[in-house]
């Protein structure tokens, strides 16, 4: 069946144009003038709604196999589909076994069978002691590797110090795969925590949690990572940058031509420390959400292209682990649930700042697709690419309720948020998977192995 998708605002690589996108089977066959839909094609007219490429979220914790009661392929991929996200790249730590060798990757592949509503891929993990396993894992199709420079929250996913990271980078030399790093060092965090405890700080206060993860933890880690990127000629990707203080060193590294890419997350662009209530542990994530001035500096870096992309770092847990009744930030599990809400949240924030909507698909589709080695297939509306789309009305206003969250546990700081813009329809490889508030068809998601 040939489909013709028509809109007055199709996001092509050259910007928004009125066009008809011709879809043959699973791929985009052509981009035609708006009024030239072939007579024998099935026409879908989206009027003035935006036709965006299906979004790619390269930072998601799916948790399956092993912790499916936290989140799983079925729930995570439905949340994605409802939010216009057609490709998820899973982080290697919250599943059991952790994705740190080929048998673990195989276990994930089995777990995903028949469960995924959107396409997915899996980052491999670099942990202390698995350097030997990395070449085989690279060969089996992971798009890159994730490591932590501080305790990850998961004991079995052992964080790496500089010498362990050096071993891994040595093993991965020549693969051209990116190494993604959680960039916080434990030294500044441990020191800050000790002084806070010595002065009997109140751990129900958000200010205490924020003070326990100072900017220096990020800037020190990023300094180290830049040094290693240069020495090993490696592609290092900084996940979830929260501290604007690291921006000058990142700008300098990029100016020297180093392969250092940068992501921030929706929560750092939307919330600010000033407005987070004490005890509201649904806002806990690491690095922490910082102050308003920091947030605005992140926006400026995004606008000028120093920050390449925006992901969610969707990382939920069973609500009890957030220990909301006690509200103690040191005891609560860290991770914010947001999958499926990122597009309207960013759209709302951009409208307030007068930022061109076109940028959304650079930040949330093209750049993360490139990071995951999926350029040409994902992240753009162009001939030959997968026919993945998000149909988005950017103007409708609404308020987030639990019914709008399709992930497993409905505890999220976005509950009650007043947003602008709504996903009308999501297409995965030539067919709708979400339309008019309902899931359609079947779980057709496939793993996207790096070519
Ligand atoms: Zn994460």
Architecture overview:
With 451 residues, the protein is α/β, with parallel strands linked by helices. The chain contains 12 helices and 18 strands. The protein has helices at 73-82, 102-112, 134-139, 162-172, 186-198, 206-212, 215-232, 247-255, 266-270, 292-303, 342-353, 359-371, and strands at 2-12, 15-24, 27-33, 42-45, 50-53, 55-60, 85-90, 119-122, 124-125, 145-148, 179-182, 236-238, 260-265, 309-311, 389-399, 418-428, 431-435, 438-439. The strands form 3 sheets. Strands 1, 2, 3, 4, 5, 15, 16, 17 and 18 form a 9-stranded mixed sheet that branches. Strand 17 and strand 18 (438-439) form a beta hairpin. It is globular and about 75 Å long.
The beta-strand count equals 18
What's the Cα radius of gyration?
A: 21 Å
Low-confidence parts lasting 5 or more residues at pLDDT below 50? none
Strand-residue fraction? 15-25%
The chain-level structural class is alpha/beta
Ligand species: zinc ion
Percentage of residues assigned to helices:
25-40%
Q: Can you summarize the main beta sheet? A: 9 strands, mixed
Helix and strand element order = EEEEEEHEHEEHEHEHHHEHEHHEHHEEEE
In whole angstroms, the N-to-C terminal distance is 27 Å
Average pLDDT figure: 97
Q: Globular, elongated, flat, extended or rod-shaped: what is the shape? A: globular
Total helical segments: 12
